[in-house]
Amino acid sequence: MIEQPILIAGRSGQLGSCLHDLAALSGVSAVALGREELDLEVREGVDRTIASIAPCMIINAAAYTAVDQAESEAGKAFSINRDGAAALADVAWQRNIPFVHVSTDYVFDGAKREAYDEADVPAPLNTYGASKLAGEAAVLAAHPLATVVRSSWIYSSTGTNFVRTMLRLAETHPMVRVVCDQHGSPTSAAELAAALLKIAKRSLADDRRIAAGIFHVAGQGTTSWHGFAEAIFDGLSRRGVRPPALEAITTEQYPCAARRPLNSRLDSSKAERVFGIRLPAWRHSLESCLDQLVGKGDTDAEGNRPGWRQRNSALPDHACGQQAVAAHL
Q: Any idea where the RmlD-like substrate binding domain is (predicted)?
């Protein structure tokens, strides 16, 4: 049992929420803070807050993730994703505690045909990716033994993400258009949270040099956004919900403020070698998420699962319509 708590930054995000819930279920002492308690743009407050908690380690799941909006808010994106992350890492280094930082597949430009591994040179196409890459460098400079975990296409049963957006569109649109030429690995926030806690425990128990550096952790298997949407709608159909028609379009047909990599697949074999971490196949994890969102019970008179509309009706639009925007941390 860990006596001092693990501090989780980013409580309001889907990953931070999953981390906090899983820690509680696992009997791990954890304190999750949102921006109200831990504003990464105010360094003095960061120092004071962490000192008051005296954590045994810090997991940073907080980030600015509005990919398109970042093109007009570069200062804010870098303030949170680079400077704020570095501030957390610096405090962790000064307190001699482990630090785990979550990053993104969008640090790559997508030009590579194969999956990206940790040795590949990043080249972000957009401001969001550039701010996250700068954050990685700043974290490792401030805390040389930090663990940086890149993931991709994160979704869960809560928050703003591609799965929930597709469910909302399934209620309101007879036809949904989704890009088919961007490929990546969908990752369950719950599965990623479990992996991060495993890394955290390893960092606390073993030589921290083992966990130092950059690791890729993403769901097994790859697909396109269109393929992801197709799997979501197939899942609805199997649960008795009639899905909308699905049309494949190209990135060129759906322009956005921020460019996206056509290939952001991540090779997670290093994390498997070092930590024994291998996330489930993305389709398996998606089924678990749909079970939570749509349910397994009987359909109502209209052929819908009771309650699923209410759980998905109040979601805001993604910044780029039907196209997924980012890993919302």
A: 6-293
Q: How big is the chain, counted in residues?
A: 329
Contact between residue 223 and residue 265 where contact means Cβ atoms under 8 Å apart: no
Over residues 289-315, the pLDDT tens digits come to: 999 999 874 444 455 555 555 344 443
Whether 9 contacts 38, CB under 8 Å: yes
CATH 3.40.50.720 maps onto the chain at: 6-160+185-221+264-281
Q: How far apart are CA 23 and CA 250, in angstroms?
A: 40
pLDDT score recorded for residue 325: 30
CATH superfamily of the domain spanning 6-160+185-221+264-281 = NAD(P)-binding Rossmann-like Domain (3.40.50.720)
Of 120-129, 170-179, 225-234, 301-310, the poorest mean pLDDT is in 301-310
Mean pLDDT of 244-269: 96
In order of 170, 295, 307, the CA distances from 313 in angstroms are: 11, 16, 10
Residues recognised as catalytic: 128
- What is the identity of the amino acid at 101? H
